[in-house]
Amino acid sequence: MGPHPAVAAIRLAVRRVLHDVLTDLTDPADRAAATPPLVLVACSGGADSMALASALAFEAPKLGIRAGGITIDHGLQPGSDLRAAEVVNRMTALRLDPVESVAVRVGRDGGPEAAARDARYAALDEAADRLGAAAVLLGHTRDDQAETVLLGLARGSGIRSLSGMAEVSGGPGRTRRYRRPFLHIDRQTARKACMVQSLPVWDDPHNIDPAYTRSRLRHEGLPALEKALGKGVVEALARTAQLSRDDADALDAWAADAEAGVRDADGRLECAKLYALPPAVRRRVLRRAVVAAGSPAGSLFARHIEEVDRLITGWRGQGAINLPGRVEAQRQGGRLVIRQG
């Protein structure tokens, strides 16, 4: 008899991602001669990440991959260090190696959820670099994706915000570090996989705390949508994320190609040529230019770009537009000048 369907589903998802990781590595002959690649799982001890850790521990050795784990102690709750130590023990029991707990200090920028996320990813990046990991697996599920799409919709910041989380992502130089094998698996399947494997799980009290926006969406917003629209809402939102991502990627590529054509010989943006571009492409060109001038991407919202866009489409002699990061945009003699003050 084969494994329970929930266990089979999580293992298949991880197996596919591990094959992709191996494909991304160097020539197979070089790979065989080198130290086996290391893949880490980011594990909070919750059902999603424990299911992911168990699947990685099962699948990685069959592909000649070393499997390790990292848990992040955010220090936001009493006894968080003890919980982190328990998660380390659980990952060790799965025969993951190396296994580490990393304590972080959570700042205040962007609110508690964003600050915790920033601290977590910074710690995961550091650990992956230090340990030489080929990839880090994250346990985000289809339900998490649906929540992310709704949060993006509430921000009203365009199609990119509706594209949710990418299956593969990363920072500069590490564009394919993070992998999300469970984006097509629902949260209940991950929890069932833990139950049938007798894996203990920890339920983070923050996930039911109404002080957090995502928690309210999870326990109030999505259930209300399902009641009104039917049980297919989560799957439909996840599908919307993928379609939106495909569209946004295409528009981003178009904007990257168009940018060179709207600059003069001195590299300045020409307003007439910008005006001729489709609005979706023009705004992406403007956003790229503003970020290149030093405006933090995370602080740049649709309303900022709309103000800059009006210098092109609604020119009335208005003055400079102040943007995050002490960047200003100003129209001068048919050119758009974007610089840091």
UniProtKB/TrEMBL annotation:
Residues 269-336 form the tRNA(Ile)-lysidine synthase substrate-binding domain. Residues 39-220 form the tRNA(Ile)-lysidine/2-thiocytidine synthase N-terminal domain. GO terms for biological process: tRNA modification. InterPro entries: Rossmann-like_a/b/a_fold, TilS/TtcA_N, tRNA_Ile_lys_synt, tRNA_Ile_lys_synt_N, tRNA_Ile_lys_synt_subst-bd. It catalyses: cytidine(34) in tRNA(Ile2) + L-lysine + ATP = lysidine(34) in tRNA(Ile2) + AMP + diphosphate + H(+). GO terms for cellular component: cytoplasm. Its EC number is 6.3.4.19. It comes from the Bacteria. Belongs to the tRNA(Ile)-lysidine synthase family. Ligates lysine onto the cytidine present at position 34 of the AUA codon-specific tRNA(Ile) that contains the anticodon CAU, in an ATP-dependent manner. Cytidine is converted to lysidine, thus changing the amino acid specificity of the tRNA from methionine to isoleucine. This is tRNA(Ile)-lysidine synthase. It comes from Streptomyces katrae.
